[in-house]
Amino acid sequence: DAMVIQNPRYQVTQFGKPVTLSCSQTLNHNVMYWYQQKSSQAPKLLFHYYDKDFNNEADTPDNFQSRRPNTSFCFLDIRSPGLGDAAMYLCATSRGRGVGYTFGSGTRLTVV
Amino acid sequence: QQQVKQSPQSLIVQKGGISIINCAYENTAFDYFPWYQQFPGKGPALLIAIRPDVSEKKEGRFTISFNKSAKQFSLHIMDSQPGDSATYFCAASIENYGQNFVFGPGTRLSVLP
Questions:
Q1: CB A95: neighbour CB atoms within 10 A?
Q2: Which domains does chain A carry?
Q3: pLDDT tens profile A8-47
Q4: How many CB atoms lie within 10 A of CB A80?
Q5: For residue range B80-100, what is the model confidence (pLDDT) as tens digits?
Q6: Under an 8 A CB cutoff, do B95 and A92 touch?
Q7: Which of the residues B32, B47, B50, B101 would you substitute to probe the A interface, choosing the one with the greatest number of A C-beta atoms within 10 Å?
Q8: Assigned superfamily of B4-94+101-112
Q9: Which of B37, B53, B76, B97 is the most exposed place for a label (fewest CB within 10 A)?
């Protein structure tokens, strides 16, 4: 089945230690998104790639970076995680912007 | 202008009842309105979506009602089941402009057996 896969499902990292979350898709969608979702809140868009074109949200901290080496994979790098970065990180894809998002199951990040 | 308001924040319904969640928006350029269902520990999943050229869309027990003049849309879940217990997010986007989704804050639905 075509899908969006996130690894790992759960990630524990130390305060200030760089961490990378990964996302892969078999849908061949042009757009890949990274969202941060904190408890009982709506997903918050961090950035997205339209093909190789990177689009950062204005309020996304510099601590968050992303890479998309090819159509299928996208990575979220958190350079120096703080306690406030503990959240569920969701990857999503779509064929074009603004329609038909498919979300992965998320990675739950804990910062200790 | 970019906000999507959603109510109620939480909802408790008896099994077999009707669940109704409401959303409102300001930006008249929005032209795509999806609803997402999210179970604990899972990513959101597209439930049903509507475009402003129709006033209602039904898929099984789920119906979206859309009121363009009032800039409101709602999700109705008929014959609600305990398995429907989840958080529901409405969203809006400008599909033709390729604008990303704006999500509402979510409604936590609990359906009692």
A1: 13
A2: 4-107 (2.60.40.10)
A3: 999 999 999 999 999 999 999 999 999 999 988 889 999 9
A4: 13
A5: 999 999 999 999 988 766 667
A6: no
A7: B101
A8: Immunoglobulins (2.60.40.10)
A9: B53
